[in-house]
Amino acid sequence: QEKSSRLSAALFGEDCEISHDQLYELLKYAALGRCHNATRPRYSAHLAGVVVIVLCEMSQLHFYKFYLQFKHLRKVFRHRFTLTPSANFLASLCGEGGNPKPQNNAQGLTSTSSECVPKTSDLHYDPIIQKYGEKKQGLTSYTLTLEEQRKNDFPMKGSPGCKDYVYTECDEPRTDSSPLFGLDCEMCLTARGNEVTRVSLVDAQGQCLMNELVKPTSTIWNYRTRYSGITKQMMLPVKTRLPDIQTRLKKMLPRDAVLVGHSLNGDLQALKMIHPSVIDTSLLFARNEGRRFKLKFLAKAVLGKEIQSEEALGHDPAEDARAALELAQFFIEQGPAKVAELNLEMLLTTDKLAETSQNKAASQPQGRSIQKQLNGTPDLPKPCFLDCLQVTGQKPLLLGRQELDSSGLQRSNTSTPNKQILQRALEDVPLSTFSIIQFTLGPEYVASHLLAGLCEKVRSKLADMLTIYAGPFEESFCLKSVKKEFRRCGPIQCLTVVTETSQPYVCVRYEVLEAAQLAVESLNGAEVAGSCIKVQRPVTAAMLDCDVLIKELELDVENEGVIYVAGLKKSLTETDLQEEFSQLKDLETLFLPKDLQTGKHRNCCFLKFQKSQSAVDALEVINGWTVKGSKLRSRNALASGHLWRWIQQMNHSNGKQGGSSSCETRERLSDCEQGLRKEVKKLDRHIKKIYRRLQNNTLCVVLFPGLN
């Protein structure tokens, strides 16, 4: 028996959202198949590879604000879903945890149980042993080579981006007795990006030699007090500038000094200084695939120290510098074998397991928590399938990767230009079975005031696209009959009479784009309420490209074979409509929208056909149809499922319009927006080039993770 047309959640859904769990399972199965208990999604098939392109700091707002600029992206990728932003996006994407098989009996970080100590035969495969060997060595064996510094974006003499950097002039040869100094900086977000606002330096005995606030050259946009501990009041009396700090550091450091820090490249970039001999503890305590331990975890697991307390206001850079220094000293004194025996990956997994259990216990009723313990089914953190890939012999490709350092800021590899990341992707992606490529925007394009401005512009433009003006009417025209006529094009949000004109006009705001466009197309020049009227949208600077945008939305691959039908009686049910439209050829799906607040059906629906030509034929048939005494109107669909949902949320939101801003502020925002538009065009071309290099049957996912 042939199936009748039914609502397809996969096509439209209530909100067109997918969860992080669904994305995780999709990517995990695509990469691992049936290995490692990967649940098979219905939509997965045999694949040649998996490529995930992450457009960092970009969201659905950017996609629709710069819809016309994403020419390739919107034409090639046929399926789009809304994904809720995550505070730690890549961690939730790849799955948390460092070991695919964590122990059920979670032990503390300081546990030295023999169950946690790896066998000698296992130590050979530890990334620390593979990098340094098992024997103790002097500190010079752990300083980064020039190649390692270049690869990890340390400022170096002769580098194009370091022309204005200050060289410490510490040129004497290093020995195993050279003095160590711990360095850490805190940043605030300014118009120029992350600028240093606090610097701490400690000596080998842990004595603090410098703990200084620094006044940046640009206006501070975000103090990031949660991480930096810096407030506006603290910065008011500060006079010290970056050149003052650079001069003092040059004088304080001996000619054979070795600087130690955690993600030290970010600190030196912020200081705009070059130092030839460094130890980076985020690289010293090596992990597989270039991942890094956080300083807070290492301090507790290795040193037994608590740093970066949740109760404290921000991080203490002197404390962080001292912790990094002591970690380096521990590594040098104990040797790689002793460090490997700590089994840091297992400790990290058990730590996360314990934290997850505590959070679950705190959020659940006591009885339920006890029952879970009795059943022996604790909630385990997701294993990182990048580790699973390593086990199966696959080597994932990670490009443009950004690590959260101890301050919570994404600092490593931020200076790697997108063009360089693209070049590596074009060379390496075709050779890899699993790739994650991250492209980033400059700091000037992620400022909160720019995002607020973009959001308001998108909101305003969507409102104008949903609005039409009609008239003129006779002085004594019947408003009820006018509203009835315009309602035949689709659901109306509001209808008002314009009083500023000599003859009456009406302003109609619809709830869906198709209704407004249908009104312009079918009622412009028509006789309504005894008057021949003109129907048009508002004429504003933002609406000058409205016709182009409407045409591109209509041609969007997501709207292929989809038509919009208006003029339905609200009493009609989905079953009634299925019976009415059953004679239409190749009808696949019927979607009857509901009011988000009342849950009632609207007087319109969307029809999805298996073939585009069938949709064209249906348009000719439906226009002029009468269903239950109501005359139907139809046209091609404009808004895909998630755009339709977004418009509905905008219509029912109580967001206030942005206040007035100065001409100078508007001009600055306009310049930033123009620059961002150019960046979007470049990113679209980057995606196009990568896409053309992919093998057949490659799963390619493009993510707009957002900022929240």
From TrEMBL:
Superkingdom of source: Eukaryota
Keywords: Exonuclease, Hydrolase, Nuclease, RNA-binding
Gene Ontology CC, one term: nucleus
Keyword Nuclease applies: yes
Keyword presence, Zinc: no
InterPro entries in alphabetical order: Nucleotide-bd_a/b_plait_sf (IPR012677), RBD_domain_sf (IPR035979), REX1-like_exo (IPR034922), REXO1/3/4-like (IPR047021), Ribonucl_H (IPR013520), RNaseH-like_sf (IPR012337), RNaseH_sf (IPR036397), RRM_dom (IPR000504)
Molecular functions (GO terms): exonuclease activity; RNA binding
RRM domain mapped to chain residues: 466-540, 561-639
Stored Pfam families: RNase_T, RRM_1
Record-given protein name: REXO5 exonuclease
Organism whose genome encodes this protein: Centropus bengalensis
Lineage: Eukaryota, Metazoa, Chordata, Craniata, Vertebrata
